[in-house]
Automatic annotation (TrEMBL):
Membrane topology field: Multi-pass membrane protein
Organism of derivation: Branchiostoma floridae (Florida lancelet)
Name of the protein in its database record: Sugar phosphate exchanger 3
PROSITE patterns: MFS
PANTHER family: MAJOR FACILITATOR SUPERFAMILY TRANSPORTER 16, ISOFORM B, SUGAR PHOSPHATE EXCHANGER 3
One GO CC term on file: membrane
Chief place where the protein resides: membrane
Transmembrane segments: 65-82, 89-111, 117-145, 157-176, 182-203, 350-370, 382-404, 424-444
Sorted UniProt keywords: Membrane, Signal, Sugar transport, Transmembrane, Transmembrane helix, Transport
Molecular-function GO term, any one: transmembrane transporter activity
Major facilitator superfamily (MFS) profile domain segment(s): 1-447
Pfam families referenced in this protein's UniProt entry, alphabetically: MFS_1
Subcellular location: Membrane
InterPro entries per the UniProt record, alphabetical: MFS (IPR011701), MFS_dom (IPR020846), MFS_trans_sf (IPR036259), Sugar_P_transporter (IPR000849)
Length: 451
């Protein structure tokens, strides 16, 4: 059951990421760069209205912002809903809805839709339904695996993010030049099909098949007096959202520590998810890369991310230092964020390794550790809420990132655009350093424990 749950949830979230990827590949087809080699040999180099104007970057920013803010907002609510509902139904409904919205964007090609409002609305709704996936799959895996192996297991399992990005890039790139609508429709069909499989075969928690896990049985030793409920107030910085969970009085100071990870993820995801999009960077910095070539190159970042997530989880299990592992990788990754003259394959893979490692560790193993903390009264489904809070807060960083990059790039004059990308990468380096500062207290604490 453990291996089957691991495999099926891996497949589910791979399809989630697969269905998110097409938009980044198709952008260069919606607004074509006629200076590329591919388009120089083609008589027709017309872009897709309304993205054919000089304000195309602003419109693309609207699409990204609509999705990311809707995703972030939906994530805060999806955790609460998942905690109080049947996880199988919740996950499957989200996958079917995600497939529908992904395909609907692609149908705009065949329906000849040129209204920006249509694409923005579809992206916003897609963001909300995409938020159903992460809390559900992490809760399923966290229910089946104990804390001692979570770093290794979830480091390996979290490669679904990179695998989904790779497959999504390859599938979208295969259709983008001929009929970009298929770049969305095919992934939409895939995620809906995987959702049907999950409906019939996913076992969300051990008790569904009469199994009692060891860590759960230990929670029986808690007395009623020790379980006196209090309100754990999680003030999420500027978000201003207060989430209340039942905790034991003895463990309030410990549980408050997850705020460090919440804010750390805010800046890590700003670096990882959107700003550091190898497809966008490579296609923007060089006129030699067509949409299909840029899409293929972007997979190298995700290949490095697979290895980074796995090693980060394994090392943190062995050493017991989640924060230390994150800090080391962030420190090594910051200098590599400076833009090289081109986009060498080795640099993209190494960058994916160092950036995705902390991201994978915080969103999986750390989320599971906090969500199944004994202060939460042994309520395994509280993991849904904790996971949603962490990933939802990080998604706000992913939404703010493109806005900041757009502001910087819009200051570029004629012939200065490549130079302005340097400033974007300086911003990314600063966000990386800021993430280290948020983790500094836990890093020092772990180091003292080893000395």
């Amino acid at each position: 059951y453990q291996l089957w749950t691991l495999f099926l949830t891996f497949l589910c979230y791979t399809s989630y990421h697969l269905s998110r990827k097409p938009i980044s590949i198709v952008k260069n087809e919606l607004h074509k760069n006629c200076n590329t080699t591919d388009h120089n040999t083609t008589a027709n180099c017309s872009s897709w209205k309304p993205f054919d104007g000089s304000d195309y970057e602003s419109l693309f920013g609207d699409l990204d912002t609509a999705f990311l803010f809707a995703y972030a907002g939906g994530m805060f609510f999806s955790g609460h809903i998942a905690e109080r509902s049947n996880l199988r139904y919740f996950l499957v409904l989200g996958m079917l809805s995600s497939g529908l919205m992904t395909a609907l964007f692609g149908l705009g090609y065949y329906w000849n839709i040129h209204t920006v409002a249509f694409f923005v609305i579809v992206q916003a709704v897609a963001g909300v339904v995409q938020a159903t996936g992460w809390p559900a799959v992490v809760t399923c895996v966290g229910s089946w695996f104990g804390k001692g192996r979570r770093g290794f297991i979830m480091g390996l399992w979290n490669s679904h993010t990179s695998v989904g990005n790779i497959l999504g890039s390859l599938i979208a790139a295969a259709f983008v030049s001929e009929a970009w609508g298929l770049s969305f429709i095919v992934p939409g069909i895939i995620i809906a099909s995987v959702g049907v499989i999950a409906f019939f075969f996913l076992v969300t928690e051990p008790k569904e098949v009469g199994i009692v896990m060891e860590e759960k049985s230990r929670t029986d030793s808690y007395t009623v007096q020790a379980e006196q409920s209090t309100r754990l107030r999680l003030f999420l910085g500027r978000v201003g959202l207060c989430v209340c969970l039942p905790v034991c009085h003895q463990d309030k100071p410990r549980t408050a520590g997850w705020m460090v990870y919440v804010f750390s993820l805010l800046v890590v995801v700003l670096t990882c998810r959107r700003n550091l999009n190898p497809f966008t960077v490579c296609s923007s910095l060089s006129e030699d890369y067509s949409p299909s070539v840029s899409g293929d190159m972007s997979t190298l970042f995700d290949v490095g991310g697979i290895v980074g997530g796995f090693l980060a989880g394994t090392i943190s299990d062995f050493t017991g230092g989640r924060a230390t592992c994150c800090v080391v990788m962030l420190v090594l990754g910051a200098p590599m964020l400076f833009r090289p003259p081109c986009c060498p394959t080795g640099m993209l893979a190494a960058l994916g390794f160092l950036v995705n490692g902390p991201y994978a560790l915080i969103t999986t193993a750390v989320s599971a550790d906090l969500g199944t903390h004994k202060s939460l009264k042994g309520n395994a489904k509280a993991l849904s809420t904790v996971t949603a809070i962490i990933d939802g807060t990080g998604s706000i960083g992913a939404a703010v990132g493109p806005l900041l990059a757009g502001i910087i790039l819009n200051k570029a004059g004629a012939g200065q655009r490549a130079a302005q990308w340097d400033n974007v990468f300086y911003m990314l380096m600063a966000s990386d350093v800021l993430a280290c500062l948020f983790l500094l207290r836990l890093f020092v604490k772990e180091m003292k424990g080893w000395c």
